[in-house]
Amino acid sequence: MSYLLELDRVSINFGGLQAVDEVSMRIEEGKIRALIGPNGAGKSTVFNLVTGIYKPTAGRILYQGQSIVGLGPHAITALGIARTFQNIRLFGRLTVLDNVKIGCHCRSRGGMWGAILRWPGVKREEAEITARALEALEIMELVDKRDEYARSLSYGEQRRLEIARALATRPRLLLLDEPAAGMNPQEKQVLMQMIRRIQDMGITIFLVEHDMKFVMSLSDRITVLDYGRRIAAGTPEEIQSDPAVIAAYLGQEVSYG
Ligand code: ADP
Ligand code: MG
């Protein structure tokens, strides 16, 4: 059996802090995998390791069976791994469409300057990028808002716009860091449907999220971290009744809404 993403005893420490401590997991293609755990457990750090922002101090990270350790973020995006960040990272004074196109220009031959200065030969690539951006906006149901400023969107729409930007790179693996954070129940419901739609397109999803109802209803499998260590892994049913997981969350507010 081959896996799309495999972490094998991956560790990283910052000064004296072991932020991720020998974490292993294997993600099957086409599935939704959640990574949960209390604040500071190391979830975002795992995403930063997979996307080349940090290099592990030990362990292996394999994508499609090949090591990606040592590759930078752009090389990793080019291999088909895209992500969103825990905090919104949009250009409020740019349009919705331009915010999505920026995600593609980092990878294009002409680069962002080529797109701005409109060098000849960049034009065809520009048309291709626009097409991809519109396709991503379509999936996230934001096409009608393409000419609006990003800052004029509702909070839920802004978070969806970030996912559209990641989708425009045409990923095979999509990492979502707390995509539902700050959303109201209705916005969460809409987002859940869109994530299912993305899965139906054949894209594998790796999800960090605090909302337990959201995680439990979407995920095929869940990995649980606490203080950088993997304390449990299994199906949503297995995780909900795991004593180690319940103990890790004691004293923390768990949202089931
Ligand atoms: P989570 O996303 O699970 O809430 P993080 O992965 O953001 O947790 O952080 C895990 C731990 O690593 C925290 O204690 C955090 O302060 C620490 N950490 C994360 N990134 C850095 C960094 N660049 N330098 C120092 N400490 C960091
Ligand atoms: Mg985090």
Labels describing this entry:
binds magnesium ion, 257 residues, binds adenosine-5'-diphosphate, single chain, 6-stranded mixed sheet, 10 helices, 38% helix
Count of discrete domains: 2
Count up the helices: 10
The parts where pLDDT drops under 50 for at least 5 residues are none
Main CATH class of the largest domain: Alpha Beta
Could you characterize the architecture of this molecule?
The chain is an alpha/beta fold. It has 2 domains: 1-80 and 171-257, P-loop containing nucleotide triphosphate hydrolases (Rossmann fold), CATH 3.40.50.300; 94-165, no CATH class. It has 10 helices and 10 strands. The strands form 2 sheets. It has a 6-stranded mixed sheet, sandwiched between helices. The chain has a 4-stranded antiparallel sheet with strand order 2-1-4-5, with helices on one face. Strand 9 and strand 10 (229-234) form a beta hairpin. Helix 3 (96-105) packs across helix 5 (122-139), helix 3 (96-105) packs parallel to helix 6 and helix 5 crosses helix 6. Bound molecules: adenosine-5'-diphosphate and magnesium ion. The site of magnesium ion (MG) has 3 residues, from helix 1.
What is the structure about, briefly put?
This protein is an alpha/beta fold. It has helices spanning 43-50, 73-78, 96-105, 111-117, 122-139, 155-167, 185-200, 212-218, 236-240, 243-249; strands at 5-14, 17-27, 32-36, 58-63, 66-67, 81-83, 173-177, 204-208, 221-226, 229-234. The chain has 2 domains: 1-80 and 171-257, 3-Layer(aba) Sandwich (Rossmann fold), CATH 3.40.50; 94-165, no CATH class.
